[in-house]
Amino acid sequence: MDLMWETEVRTLLGGGLVVYPTETFYALGCLATLHASVERVTASKGRPDGKPLPIIISGWDMAARYLRMGGAALELAHAFWPGPLSIIVPVDESVSPLARDRHGRSAVRMSPHPVAARLCLEAGAPLISSSANISGRPPACRPGDLDPELLRASGALVMEATPWPAGGLPSTLAEVVGGHAVRILREGAVSASSIGEAGFDVLAE
Fold this sequence. Notes:
With 205 residues, the protein is α/β, with parallel strands linked by helices. The chain has one domain (3-73, 87-167): DHBP synthase, CATH 3.90.870. The protein is 29% helix and 22% strand. It has helices spanning 6-13, 35-45, 60-66, 71-80, 114-123, 148-154, 192-197, and strands spanning 18-21, 26-29, 55-57, 85-90, 105-110, 127-128, 130-131, 157-158, 172-178, 181-186, 201-204. The strands form two sheets. The protein has a seven-stranded mixed beta sheet. Strands 7-2-1-8 form a four-stranded mixed beta sheet, covered by helices on one side. Strand 10 (181-186), helix 7 (192-197) and strand 11 form a beta-alpha-beta unit. Helix 2 (35-45) packs antiparallel against helix 6. It starts with 5 loop residues before the first helix and ends with a strand.
């Protein structure tokens, strides 16, 4: 275990919440397999019921363990992961129901951010990766911009490790809907045109 992040990893393994940097914004997260912790993320953010929380994975070994995808979805992942593309795919039942839709799917991405990826790897399970803000308020790219109300409500440990999030657009959210057809549910840092150039038929939501 990297001693610099030992406290953060132990916090996650103990059921605590951590605010950590990703490639886009700071995220509020916990182990996605600890339902009580995921409930705290939802409550702290004031997130609407029925809106599953997104997750990140650390690499392909974790993908094989926790994701149930093949075919075009796997091709799409290999084309853009690690990167800011969240793909809706079936996941292992150990992932909290608050991070799964009624079909057992989660919005998953493999983060390219070195801190987020290493934290997830050391924790040994997918992490909830919801933007570190009260729902409806702006996300943060610097520790000093984090909402004090969120920090009080969540009791989360804040990582100030660099590099800081780059900001800009959030991750793109997509799902494979048949063959090589990809529906864009939210266009963000990965453009629809780049997905099309990778050989997929892009459908707008």
